[in-house]
Amino acid sequence: MRKPIIAGNWKMNHAPAQAATLLAQLIPLLHETACDVVVCPPFVSLSETLSLTRGTPIAVGAQNCHIEKSGAFTGEVAPDFLAEMGVRYVILGHSERREYFGETDAFINRKVRAALSCGLIPIVCVGETLAQREDGVTAELVSYQTRAALAGLSPAQVGSLVIAYEPIWAIGTGMTATAADANTVIGIIRGQVRKTWGDAADMIRIQYGGSMKPGNAAELMAQPEIDGGLVGGASLNADDFAAIVHYQAERNA
Ligand code: 13P
Q1: 182-194: per-residue pLDDT in tens?
Q2: Checking CA distances to 122, which of 65, 204, 214, 231 falls within 20 to 30 Å?
Q3: What spacing in Å lies between the alpha carbon of 95 and ligand 1's midpoint?
Q4: How far away, in angstroms, is 167 Cα from ligand 1 center?
Q5: Which residues are catalytic?
Q6: How much is the pLDDT for 177?
Q7: How far is it, in rounded angstroms, from Cα 23 to Cα 57?
Q8: For residue 248, what pLDDT band results from cuts at 50, 70 and 90?
Q9: C-alpha of residue 125 to centroid of ligand 1, in Å
Q10: Which domains does the chain possess?
Q11: Is the CB of 209 within 6 Å of ligand 1?
C-alpha cells in the first residue's frame, strides 16, 4: 500500500511573514493526517517554515534546486544546502520551470540525481499542454518525460521518489482533468516505470496536480492509480488545503 502524499506548491507566494500567517492557520488543522503532508514555500521562506513546522506532521519541500554542490552559479541553490537545513522534498521539472526557465528533460534528470544524492525526495513533474492532448500525444509525451527524468536511476531510487502528473492546461485554470482521465494517464506513467524499473512501479507515488480543490480531491484520490496531489492555488488557503489533506473525511461527510 502506498501512503498518499498531499503537497502544497506555494509557487512565488508568501514571503516569511505571510508564510508564518498561513502556517499559524494551517498547523492546528493538521494535527492528525492519514497521508504525508508537504508544504513547498519559496526559498526565502524555508527557514521560517522549517522552524514553525518542527514537531508537526508537516514536511517541507523546496520548489527547485541546482545540479552542483557549490560553485560559481550566481542565484542558484544547491540541493545539499536544502538537505542541511532539514528540507525533505524538492519539486523538479515543474511545467512553469520548463516553460519560463527553459529546463530540459536532460537537465531535470541531472537535478533529480543531484537531489537524490543528498537525500532529498524529488517530486518530478510531467504533463502535456492542451495542444499536445488534442494531438493525442499525451501518453507518448508523459512516458518520454518519465523515462528521461528518471534515466540512470536504480529501482530503489525510483521507488523512493514522487512523480506529479500535472496536465498544463489544468494548472491555475480551474479546469481539472476528470478523475478517470487523470487515473488513466497516471496508470500509463506507472506502466512506463514498470517497464524499466520493475516493481519500483508499486512503490513510486504518483500525484495528480492541476486545480485540485476540496470539492474534487476525494474523487481524484479515490482513483486506484492516484497516490496524492500537488496543489497550487488551493494550498494558499489553510481551510482549503486542510480539507484536501482530509479528503477522506470530506468523502464521508
Ligand atoms: P493549481 O492547483 O493552482 O492549478 O496549480 C497546480 C500546480 O501547478 C502545482 O504544482
Answers
A1: 999 999 999 999 9
A2: 214
A3: 10
A4: 10
A5: 94, 166
A6: 85
A7: 12
A8: confident
A9: 11
A10: 5-252 (3.20.20.70)
A11: yes
167 Cβ closer than 6 Å to some ligand 1 atom = no
Burial class (CB in 10 A: 0-12, 13-18, 19+), 36: buried
Q: Is 232 in the pocket of ligand 1 (CB under 6 A)?
A: yes
- Cα 209 from Cα 177, distance rounded (Å): 9
Q: Does the beta carbon of 157 sit less than 6 angstroms from any atom of ligand 1?
A: no
pTM for the complete prediction?
0.97
Q: Which of 98, 171, 208, 244 to mutate to test the pocket of ligand 1 (most atoms within 8 A of CB)?
A: 171
Q: What is the pLDDT of residue 99?
A: 96
Ligand 1 midpoint to CA 27 (Å): 21
Q: Cα dist. 198→111, 134, 162, 202 in Å?
A: 23, 31, 16, 8
| Ligand 1 in reach of 231 Cβ (< 6 A) | yes
Cβ atoms of residues 165 and 182 within 8 Å: yes
Smallest Cα–Cα separation from 146: which of 128, 130, 133?
128
- Cα diameter, the chain: 54
Summarised one tens digit per residue, pLDDT across range 44-74 is 999 999 999 999 999 999 999 999 999 999 9
